[in-house]
Amino acid sequence: MTPSQSVTPAKETAATGEKSDNVLSVRDITVGFGSKIILQDLDLDVRRGEVLGFVGGSGTGKSVLMRTILGLTPKRTGQISVFGHDLSTASPKERTAIERRWGVLFQQGALFSSLSVKQNIQVPMREHLKLSPQLMDELATLKLELVGLPQDAADKLPSELSGGMIKRASLARALALDPDLVFLDEPTSGLDPIGAAAFDSLIANLSSTLGLTVYMVTHDLDSLHSICDRIAVLGKKRVLAIGTMDDMMKNDDPWIKSYFRGERALRRV
Ligand SMILES: Nc1ncnc2c1ncn2[C@@H]1O[C@H](COP(=O)(O)OP(=O)(O)OP(=O)(O)O)[C@@H](O)[C@H]1O
């Protein structure tokens, strides 16, 4: 079976009328640095309420794509729509409204080192909302509870937390504004297998209870198997394949085959 037989290319998904159910649509995106093209004519759809795992070899451009969607890296051509709004034609006010509806967990957490966990969680609230200090404290307490952190973590600095706690605190900050969509860049990297499994369950629970759509860059095969509804594979500057784990297991593209059915993958079963 060829890759195109076993998966649904992004363009077809849009053509079947499912577009309105896509929280995120990327069309014909090209991104490069100088003469080096990283992504070319890339298409991707992320459906409402799904957990999409994004994989690809090291240096293929997974972080570049996420940063381009977030508006942190410029694109050369193409269109990015989030919640049905084209980001390139959105007014600054519309853009701010869209950004309020997404949360981001960067690799390594990216917490502000001089702020306490509570203050970190309150950064997006201060940026986007006008709330009293008391209400912000109450909301931070709720977010800590949501991600399974003890209340005494609130006044700790990031340097006083374990790796797993840093990931949870970063997730609490990503959830500060009750987003509809979260971007997670390698959320389980650096965690031991038990911590990673616990973090996976947390993401799965949040997705099902809050109806969150999750865009997750990961190298973690356990996460891909346990919590992802679909998986997108980046390669050759585009989305090589997108579909369920079953689709990936049947795909005969050499890289996809060795990733999902290679020695390392088979060792986990
Ligand atoms: N600001 C930049 N300027 C120049 N090149 C860049 C820049 N950002 C990323 N790149 C290049 O783009 C390519 C893709 O990088 P990216 O970090 O997106 O890879 P990745 O797929 O996320 O890799 P990994 O899985 O190792 O994290 C790399 O060759 C990288 O060197």
Automatic annotation (TrEMBL):
Alphabetical keyword list: ATP-binding, Nucleotide-binding, Transport
Segments forming domain ABC transporter: 24-261
Chain coiled-coil ranges: none
Claim: Cell membrane is one of the keywords in the record: no
MF GO annotations: ATP binding; ATP hydrolysis activity
UniProt similarity note: Belongs to the ABC transporter superfamily.
Protein's recorded name: Putative ABC transporter ATP-binding protein
Organism: Roseibium aggregatum
